[in-house]
Amino acid sequence: MTTVSQHPLVQLLKRRIAIIDGAMGTTIRTYGMAEADIRGERFRNADKHLLNNGDLFSLTQPEMICDIHRRFLEAGADIIETNTFGATTITQSEFFVDDPREHGGRKDPAFYQKIIEDGMLRDLAWEINEKSARQCREWADRVANETGRQRFVAGSIGPLTVSLSNSPDADDAGFRVVTFDQVKQAYAEQVRALIAGGVDVLLLETIFDSLNAKAALVAIREVFDEDGLAAAHRELPVMISAAVGRGGETLISAQTTEAFWNAVEHVKPLSVGLNCSLGPDLMFPFLEELSSKANVAISCYPNAGLPNPLAATGFDLGPEDMARYLSNFAENGLINIAGGCCGNTPDHIAAIAQALEHKAPREYEVRA
After folding, report:
1. Rounded to whole angstroms, what are the CA distances from 227 to 126, 216, 219, 221, 343?
2. What does the alpha-carbon distance between residue 57 and residue 63 come to, in Å, rounded to a whole number?
3. CA 51 to chain centre
4. Please, which pLDDT band fits residue 108 given cuts at 50, 70 and 90?
5. Average per-residue pLDDT for the chain
6. Strands of the sheet with 201-207, listed across from one edge
7. Number of alpha helices (DSSP H) and beta strands (DSSP E) in the chain
8. Fewer beta carbons under 10 A from the terminal one: N or C of the chain?
9. CA-based nearest residue to 276, from 249, 304, 315
């Protein structure tokens, strides 16, 4: 994967700090949706609770999802994400397939082979990705035409609900519930659907397991090659963003920030960065390290502090707090892309956009 230096998003990042949107899940909760709302008529008879499967809202409540995209765009977002964080066969199976552990069995590669071959799950994952991408595309283009400022759609690719790095069995360190090829296949299908829906970039985000991320990156490379995108010079830029713990390591694979960059540098991404995680106050030293090592754009969209069930958004920090922290990152020359993850509403993004409007972007050299 190579970043094309003439891509309009690359040119934007040289001029100013780009703003990415906030938390889809947090903002959905402000609409007061209930189980019946996410089910609609289509999933009325589903056996499991679906309310935590926010990606389904793109199918059952598209007006709400489009309204959220509109609000983030009007708040100043240059980049909006598709509502597809869990839109793979593997993650969707959590909501539609019985857990064998409840019947004395276990999840293992044989179980997940059935999952990735399941026609209903494959069709559902494709539909969520393509429709969510089209919803984003429609609103990004609509607001761009109204304001005269180009907006970009990032295809959100989440970390999955399984790990390739760790064994869930304390007595068998070599056991894995899923194989690399199975994860790669699930990601490849998601990538193709996002591209079919018209995304501008692919965003591999909230990485807690670097090996899962490797499978996604291999899937992206294979999709580009097999579908002729490379030959036609139509490869999409790739953004990569990890979630880190208090020591600055990816949460499951435990790579340090520098090691994580070394593991993905060969991909030549448009950007690398940190999201979710600890909140902006505790993220600073790890962002500083990544900024000093990477020679691509740096993104940062943290949680609004730590979880707090008594807070209006479920997180501690308000719009002014997030604006202050990210403004500090910009003043220290650390970022090219800024926004918010969990707990960040359109109000948070508006405050961040305003605070960074005249801040200079971090300098880096674009590679062909």
Report:
1. 16, 16, 12, 10, 38
2. 9
3. 19
4. very high
5. 94
6. 18-19, 337-338, 297-302, 271-276, 238-242, 201-207, 152-157, 79-81
7. 14, 8
8. C
9. 304
CA–CA separation, 318 and 287 (whole Å) = 21
**Alpha carbon 200 to chain centroid distance?**
14
According to the model, what pLDDT value does residue 368 have? 54
Residue 3 banded pLDDT, cuts 50, 70, 90: very low
Question: pLDDT tens digit string along 25-35?
Answer: 999 999 999 99
Give DSSP secondary structure letters for 345-368: -HHHHHHHHHHHTTPPPPP-PPP-
Residue 146 carries which side chain, given as an amino acid letter? E
Distance in Å from the first CA to the final CA of the chain: 10
Q: Is 148 left (phi over 0), alpha (psi -120 to 50) or beta?
A: left
Q: What is the DSSP string of 52-73?
A: T-GGGHHHH-HHHHHHHHHHHH
Q: Residue 74 CB: number of other CB atoms within 10 A?
A: 15
Q: Are 362 and 291 in contact, with CB atoms under 8 Å apart?
A: yes
Distance CA 169, CA 96 (A): 24
Tokens, residue 52: 């935590």
Contact 195, 239 (CB under 8 A): no
Q: What is the pLDDT of residue 367?
A: 60
Give pLDDT tens digits for 334-365.
Answer: 999 999 999 999 999 999 999 999 999 999 87
Domain 8-356 fold is: TIM Barrel (3.20.20)
How many other C-beta atoms are found inside a 10 Å radius of the C-beta of residue 197?
Answer: 22
For 204, residues 6+ apart whose C-beta sits below 8 A from its C-beta are 157, 213, 216, 217, 220, 238, 239, 240, 241
Q: What's the pTM?
A: 0.95
Please write the tens of the pLDDT for every residue from 122-155: 999 999 999 999 999 999 999 999 999 999 999 9
The domain spans of the chain are: 8-356
Neighbours of 359 (CB within 10 A): 17
